[in-house]
Amino acid sequence: MTDKITINITDQTGRIDAILANQDLPYSRTVLANWVQSGEVLVNGQRVKRSYKVTAGDVISIQPPVVQPTEIVAEAMPLDIVYEDADLLVVNKPQGMVVHPAAGHTSGTLVNGLLHHAPLSTINGEFRPGIVHRIDRDTSGLLMVAKNDQAHQALSAQLKAHKNDRIYYALVRGEFEENTGTINAPIARHAIDRKKQAVQEGGREAVTHFEVIARYVGYTLLKVRLETGRTHQIRVHLTYIGHPIVGDPVYGGAQKLPGVTLAGQLLHAKTLSLTQPTTGETLTFDSEIPAYFAQALATLTPINPQHD
């Protein structure tokens, strides 16, 4: 069993989840908050709510739960690897594939296939080896994967500093008057539906840039560039401005196209730029619009562009 952690409060004040997040513990704020709720964190020997306000003299004890050992099984599967070197690889993930194992998806994920192909970094936890950033199951496109811990740290630092270029194509409902725009609206977990994200005051900064690529009757094809990388950011932001992504079952009502069977949102991670961790070279990768996306576009009626 992991040793119990004891924290003696002297002059700190505030919510217990915020206090714990500032204790330089080897656990994320989300994990610690969940432990408060489930009783692994006690104050003066008693369970408290996450909103509990810590005061001087409180003694916080944390008993990390025992994690049952598990093993991710390497599985042979076809992978569309567009680049690989000693430090990293870039893979074109198909729509419908889960990136890493989690509850309900212990096999058949991208990580299962990657482990069969090459060694991966270990610093991101047991269930997400190599995964520097994620894209949703029903989003297709380019994903960078670290093969060693040094590369993982370097690539993560690039993401945090907004030094990567990540461009998506999205088909959204509705027609745009403008040709370009920026959505700057903070995102946090939805106050009621905890599986969703939402634009909320006090959330984390989130910035999304968009450009109109093609106009159709009732729909618009956008090129979207992420400046930040919040969970579900593009899907949340486009819904927020009244143009949900076609086929999005969570944020867009899973609206349908006549004669087209959609397996999820029409969102594709098309272009990815990164700095190679060892050489410092800038690498840029581009992918074709996948067949499921192209078939959907072919059913739409184009609008002649009103500008050059």
Automatic annotation (TrEMBL):
GO molecular function, one term: RNA binding
Keyword tags: Isomerase, RNA-binding
Record function comment: Responsible for synthesis of pseudouridine from uracil.
Family stated for the protein in its record: Belongs to the pseudouridine synthase RluA family.
GO-annotated biological processes: enzyme-directed rRNA pseudouridine synthesis
Superkingdom assignment: Bacteria
Main enzyme class: isomerase
Protein's name in the database: Pseudouridine synthase
